[in-house]
Write a structure and sequence with these properties.
With 288 residues, the chain is mainly α. Helix content is 84%, strand content 0%. It has 10 helices and no strands.
Length: 288
């Protein structure tokens, strides 16, 4: 009878350990896949992320927004000319050079407006270069090695059936929770790209006001917003790098329950910090 009891206990232990290791393997694989996907997505320019969406955004901007921007530029430069003339003692002291200054300023404004998309893409190309360089430094660092999982399984072998059953239930629930967190991370990363498209669609309007003394702040803040969105991707990579180091440290923990709940805690923390990257990037570049 004791033999049967020992056999049943051993069978249940192996069953529960296999289930826990399977849940943990799926858990880490899901996290690794999601982290890898983030690194790929944030390193793409708007044109590379979805060529079809980008083509629609560019077409709308050039056919709908650009004519409005042209009218704004006409008003801005006319107002600039009036201000230049009035600044010279209400037409009593007029120097010829102010007209050359106005013509040069108008040419620069027209050139900027004509190359709006090139300027916007240049900002994101620069940000993409930084992101790709930083992403290459953490490639594979979120992977949990076979040795780490083996050490974890060894710890499970020392546990009794009761604690293993509780740990199996916890690992199952955490798997479901992690799936929800992965959706949150997906929304954050893809939401950033949608925000980039929205910002890009209206690019001609702030660019039209960039050279104005009174309205130039709108164009300057727009460029700051572009830089903030572009380099937000770098901050996301930094968050991933920190998370990668933290997640590896728990795989060899001597307390399996603590290790699993620490994993979920770090992933919740990652989601929170990803939400904050946009605010941090805007504060760094002074965008509002």
């Amino acid at each position: 009878m004791q033999f049967l009891t020992d056999w049943l206990t051993e069978f249940l232990k192996e069953f529960l350990i296999d289930g826990i290791m399977s849940n943990l393997s799926n858990l880490f694989d899901s996290v690794n896949d999601q982290i890898g996907e983030i690194a790929v997505q944030v390193g793409m320019t708007p044109a590379a992320w979805n060529a079809g969406v980008f083509a629609v955004i560019r077409s709308l901007s050039e056919t709908v927004i650009l004519p409005i921007a042209g009218l704004i530029l006409t008003f801005v430069m006319t107002w600039e000319l009036i201000q230049l003339i009035l600044d010279k003692n209400n037409l009593h002291e007029i120097d010829t050079w102010i007209f050359y200054k106005w013509i040069f300023k108008t040419m620069i404004a027209v050139m900027i407006l004509s190359n709006t998309f090139n300027i916007v893409m240049a900002v994101f190309d620069a940000a993409q270069s930084v992101i790709q360089s930083s992403a290459s430094l953490i490639t594979g660092s979120t992977n949990v090695t076979a040795d780490m999982m083996a050490a974890f399984e060894t710890e499970l072998q020392t546990m009794e059936v009761g604690p293993l059953l509780g740990l199996w239930m916890q690992s199952f629930i955490i798997n479901i929770t992690m799936a929800a967190l992965n959706i949150i991370i997906f929304v954050i990363v893809y939401g950033r790209m949608i925000e980039i498209y929205l910002l890009t669609s209206l690019a001609p309007i702030p660019m039209a006001a960039l050279t104005s003394r009174e309205l130039g702040g709108m164009g300057q803040n727009y460029i700051k917003s572009l830089l903030a969105l572009g380099f937000q991707g770098f901050l996301i990579i930094v968050c991933i790098a920190i998370y990668a180091i933290l997640i590896q440290s728990i795989a060899i923990s001597t307390d399996p329950m603590l290790a699993i709940w620490t994993c979920i805690g770090y992933t919740v923390l990652l989601s929170f910090t990803l939400f904050k990257t946009g605010t941090v990037a805007k504060s760094i570049f002074g965008a509002h």
